[in-house]
């Protein structure tokens, strides 16, 4: 792998010099001041486009595949501060978005559905994986526990996994909306090479239950994170939103990047059988989100009916080679028939290689199907999207990474998002209208109850 001018290269240079980000921060000026000094020497073209951002007009920054960290060209040699300040700076600033990005609904759909999906359930890596238990345990559950023990052993061992306090991964992605099917016709992408969007992502994780991901694709950027108590996401079209329901891991981390979280996710799973995946015999573990979690994730007219996760573990190597999850959302239109959206993501993991003793999947691809049905007979639509990714760099126990790197953005609106937020725009508008009507009814009902209570009090006082 050729040497890349990015954050990880800068990190390795810092380590070679014996400087941790914490020590760098204590020595002098912040990276922001160095960035300002560099920008004073940089002449900005008058023809540079501007976009509205936070109520002001600012020049559009040229978006590289992904800016992993401090300026790769070295910039000001006296610039100090390191990764904590850079991460907070990334969280604080809005993503650079070209005006043409808003014209591509396919790109918006790709990023919305595949940019930063979450796992079905809350898990914590602090709790150890339970020991294999056979007594008074159903055979499906005890079999699943045995498979997970084999998976952890094949991934490097539980002792090694427990020694990891934080992790970093950087990779490249390609996404395409390959097919759209309606009741009357099927539209396929003919020139897939031209319609494929390429980009990159960076993922940070830290115990307990903290993560941050940033994905740039086709001139747009989506970033999301969790500080252990709150999950949030920022997209150019929705802004920053807090997630509904309990704290959940990032699904991308389950795709061969975090064996410990993956094992914790399937602790309460059941072994439901065997299946051959790409010529390899696998055990199938099934996990369903509980009703309390589904209810907590639902909001107004958008109800999450089910969310199921399947893990396919190789009988030969013990590793996870296929991940499938499907969730069904029901949206009740005001005075009309309900509309159902079923999102299914099939991910195939490949090219496992050891990094510091931990087996990491260095490539894979996902096939996503977004199926809409309901309202009228023969009015369904099905959209098929695909993603291929490769992992370029991975590191564990990165020095200087702290909780400050996972602080939510300042502009975060606590108006929450749920799984219906990333549906196509027309459906979101309907859902928003219905949600507004729903909230108005609730407010009117609460007001009538308050008035009733006040009248009761007055009546009792008069008596």
Draw up the topology in text.
Layout: H1 7-16, H2 21-25, H3 31-40, E1 50-53, E2 56-59, H4 82-92, H5 105-114, H6 139-154, H7 158-162, E3 166-182, E4 186-188, H8 192-195, E5 197-206, E6 210-217, E7 220-227, E8 231-235, E9 239-243, H9 259-265, E10 270-277, E11 280-288, H10 291-297, E12 302-314, E13 320-332, E14 338-355, E15 358-374, E16 381-396, E17 413-417, H11 425-462
Parallel strand pairs: 9-17
Antiparallel strand pairs: 1-2, 3-4, 3-5, 3-16, 5-6, 6-7, 7-8, 8-9, 10-11, 11-12, 12-13, 13-14, 14-15, 15-16
Which of globular, elongated, flat, extended, rod-shaped describes the shape? globular
Task: Give the ordered list of helices and strands.
Answer: HHHEEHHHHEEHEEEEEHEEHEEEEEEH
Unreliable runs: 1-5, 14-103, 425-439, 449-463
Major beta-sheet overview: 15 strands, mixed
Distance between the termini: 86 Å
Rounded average pLDDT: 74
Radius of gyration, Cα only, in angstroms? Answer: 24 Å
Helix content: 25-40%
Describe this structure in words.
- With 463 residues, this protein is α+β, with helices and mostly antiparallel strands.
- Helices cover 27% and strands 35% of the residues.
- It has eleven helices and 17 strands.
- The chain has a 15-stranded mixed β-sheet that branches. A two-stranded antiparallel sheet has the order 1-2.
- Strand 1 (50-53) and strand 2 form a beta hairpin.
- The chain starts with 6 loop residues before the first helix and ends with a helix.
- Residues 1-5, 14-103, 425-439 and 449-463 have low confidence and may be disordered.
Question: What structural keywords apply?
Answer:
463 residues, alpha+beta, 15-stranded mixed β-sheet, two-stranded antiparallel ribbon, globular, disordered N terminus, disordered C terminus
